[in-house]
Amino acid sequence: MFHLSANVKKDRSMSFPIESLPPRVRIYDTTLRDGNQGVGINFSLNDKLKISRQLDAVGVDYIEGGWPNPTNLSEGRYFDLVKRDSLKAKVSAFGMTRRVGISPDKDENLRALIKANTDYVTLFGKSWTFQVDRVLEVSREENLRMIRESVQFLKGKGRHVIYDAEHFFDGFKADSSYSMSTISMAEQAGAEELVLCDTRGGSLPNEIYHIMSEVSSQTSLPLGIHAHNDRGLAVANSLFAVGAGATHAQGTINGIGERCGNADLIQIASNLALMGVNTGVDISKLTRLARFVAEVANMKQDEHDPFVGVSAFAHKGGIHGHAVGKTPEAYEFASPTIFGNTRRVPVSSQAGRASVHTLGNELGFKLSRSDPAVLKILKSIKELEAEGYHLENANGSLTLIYAQALQKKISFFRIVDWSVFVSESSGRTLTQSVVKLHVGREDIFAAAEGNGPVNALDKALRDALSSGYPEVSEIKLTGYRVKEIDTESGTAAKVGVYADFSHRNENWTTVGVSMNILSASKLALVDGYRYFMFKLVSRRRISSA
User: Fold this and answer.
1) For the chain, what are the domain ranges?
2) What is the pLDDT of residues 522-536, one digit of tens each?
């Protein structure tokens, strides 16, 4: 069981019903199903298996594997393959009540749920008269029979049934008597948990609280909340639901999902931990999980995401950076380490000496605030930013600025000449790069072909450097981004190129700025390799001392 760190204090709000919070809330993840319904997201079978392992390692209680309908063979394979991992989390198959006019044993979707062979099945049904009348187009009595017979069928096959009451809050506001009859029918049929869904995401926290309280007073079954984010309130609604009696919270990692997404489980688990509620989730692993899911989903994580974003604990303003250097509590409600994140004090044109000093210590440089190098570094940064350099997220370039000001060796090589050629022949585009480097006392020539100009240049640089620094071949170029700086100049605008590198467990970013995109790329690549060599030589010096 994960225990909250002692330095985390319970977050007590006068407006939140904190005293009614349960000691334990189960976390139900639906990233693989509801998250996969987000526009631009399409998890492969392998993606789903990898995410499942990460969710299990963090400590979620339930993993919703997806909808094993007969037409989706990949979903069925997931349930077969995930069993091999022997996860501690309970894997649940997801599906809907039987179709109209057919018995459960003849319903292909229900049969697919059984075939998935999971201990748990999550079944959804209609709770809102509007949905029953206008979408299903069946009598309200038939809808109740569909719920009862479907739950009974699954229970008869030995499954634990979690019943998701779709559109429950809309249904309750329209006709509370009927919406209550739907979950009562699920309970009578043998459902073990009732999850109330704000499917359209249109409810307010006070509505969620009062309706959940009402339902809680009329059932002995555990209640859950499934909130969507169409009003930006999914997390707040989930927390208020817990305050009203819910002991089960559903959502997705990073809040991905249809339309505006689902409740973000990262934020739910983190907030509940701060409020003293045990979720079973190791929140120190949440930053890594959030970034992993974003990478697999092929989406850029919002750097300002609460708790886990790269800039969630970034203090750019000089006054803020100075205060945090003295006492982090000045501008941080909790330590970033609790969530597996890190504090950043980006240095920019807005920075002062205190920020330069604090960042220097974070980068591994030991210097006092009175060190003359501090003012020199600050001057260099402001001059570079005036040229269009944005250094906040370029830790590699910043390290080189500090090292140069402190008279450390950073010029391990010099580019004497370089060129890139692009030609087309017989419909094939060929890109080549030739570089001449001065390394030590000799000139080294290298040539390489690439998939594009930057790739060719990168390969040529690596080939030239690897003779003296063989470790360079192990470096991965993990990201490449171009940012237009002077947009009013059109095609003559300056561009900033950001290059992301990784080597084993270390990651760094460098930036180059020029009127020419290839020149900017060259500057970023050169700084990327210089940073690596600086760190490599520094480590060698320490180990030999």
Assistant:
1) 27-296, 318-386, 413-544
2) 999 999 999 999 998
